[in-house]
Each structure stands twice: as C-alpha cells, then as structure tokens.
Amino acid sequence: MDLTTLTKVKAYLGISGTSQDTLLSSLITSVSAGIESFCGRTFASTSHTEYYDGDNKDKIFLRNYPVTSLTSVKYQGGTWDNITWFDYPSSGYLLTSEYARLSFAGALPCITNYLQIIYTAGYLIDFDNEGTGTHTLPYDLTQIVTELVSTNYNTRSSGGINTMSTEGQSITFSTQSITKDYQTRLARYIRYK
C-alpha cells in the first residue's frame, strides 16, 4: 500500500498539471515498497499468523507492530505426527501493543514452533480521512516517502552522474537512495530481529 499520495507529492514538488501523474504514481508505489523492504515490515494493518520457538524465553517480540488486536495465542501439543494447538491461558501472558512484546509468566519450554500467535498489526491507511481514527499512519513516515519520491523524480535524468557543474555552480546527487539522514529518520520504524 502506498505510504503517501499523488496530491502530497505534487504539492511538495510544486506541480499543478497532470502530465507527470503516471510517473509520480509509479515512483510512490516503488518508494513505498522500498521503505517497507528497508524497514523489514508491512505498515498497513494486516492479519498475521506466526510461529515461535520456546527456547526458555519469557518474552517474544512479534514481527509486526503496533499490534491492534490479538486473536489467539496457542501452544503446541500432541505428537509430531498429529500436532494439536491449545489455547494459552490469557492470564499467562501480557501484550505490550506498541512494541509487539508478549511477556509470559514463566519461561517457555524449548520446543520448536511451540507457539502459534494470530494477531493484527500495522497502521490504518485512509488518506481521505487524515486526522481521524481511520488513518493512523504516522505523518513523519508519509513525509519521508514524499521527500524520497520527490528526490527520485528530480534526479531521474542524472543517469548515474554524481556531480554536475555549470556556470560556477556544483550539484552533487546522492548515490544512495536511502541516505544516512533518512536511515536515521526511519530507525524507529525498522523491525529488529
């Protein structure tokens, strides 16, 4: 899902016509996918089913956040040939939604794929209703994508040129699509394993 809009990008670039809409829309989708790849997560609210080993842990960090609903936490039982999933008692764990952390009352047994967790995580994306509960995507994330789309649009014809000089002026193009500045700004959104 796109993390900014054509309207926002055109306003940022100062473009009023429609001749560049197809290109800009393509860049928006491409940059949005690149940001998700860089951060290692999906930002749009999505349902997830994940499996975790016990490994004597008493905490598990889910792969996606913020968690908006926890459907089920189940533990593995039965035999390897006939695995059965049982509901983990809700009094045995605590969810910290913002960090997608499940804390358990005690250490979990060392069993591969011991837990099955089904939950919904991510942000609601509805740009038509910004400022309401139906749009929760952080504004700074949208701004980063808008800026990167604009940068890609403005440097699309540089064709690998790193520096260009004309009439005593020098312009240096970034050779890295996500510069250190953007990496710093995106750090809070990166999924750490």
How would you describe this structure to a colleague?
With 193 residues, the protein is α+β, with helices and mostly antiparallel strands. Helices cover 26% and strands 27% of the residues. The chain has 4 helices and 9 strands; from the N terminus they run ααβββββββαββα. Strands 1-7-3-4 form a 4-stranded antiparallel beta sheet, with no helix packed on it. Strands 2-6-5 form a 3-stranded antiparallel beta sheet, with no helix packed on it. A hairpin with a 2-residue loop joins strand 3 (67-79) and strand 4. The longest helix is centred in the N-terminal third of the chain and has 19 residues, at 21-39. The radius of gyration is 22 Å and the shape is elongated. The two termini are 23 Å apart.
The sequence of SSEs as H and E is HHEEEEEEEHEEH
SSE-based structural type = alpha+beta
Distance between the termini: 23 Å
Number of strands: 9
Low-pLDDT residue spans: 160-165, 170-176
Q: What sort of overall outline do the alpha carbons produce when their principal axes are compared?
A: elongated
Helical content stands at 25-40%
From the alpha-carbon coordinates, what is the Rg to the nearest angstrom?
22 Å
Can you tag this structure with a few keywords?
193 residues, alpha+beta, 3-stranded antiparallel β-sheet
Task: Set out the fold topology.
Layout: H1 6-13, H2 21-39, E1 46-52, E2 59-61, E3 67-79, E4 82-87, E5 93-96, E6 101-104, E7 115-121, H3 139-154, E8 163-166, E9 169-172, H4 180-186
Antiparallel strand pairs: 1-7, 2-6, 3-4, 3-7, 5-6, 8-9
Helix pairs in contact: 1-3, 2-3
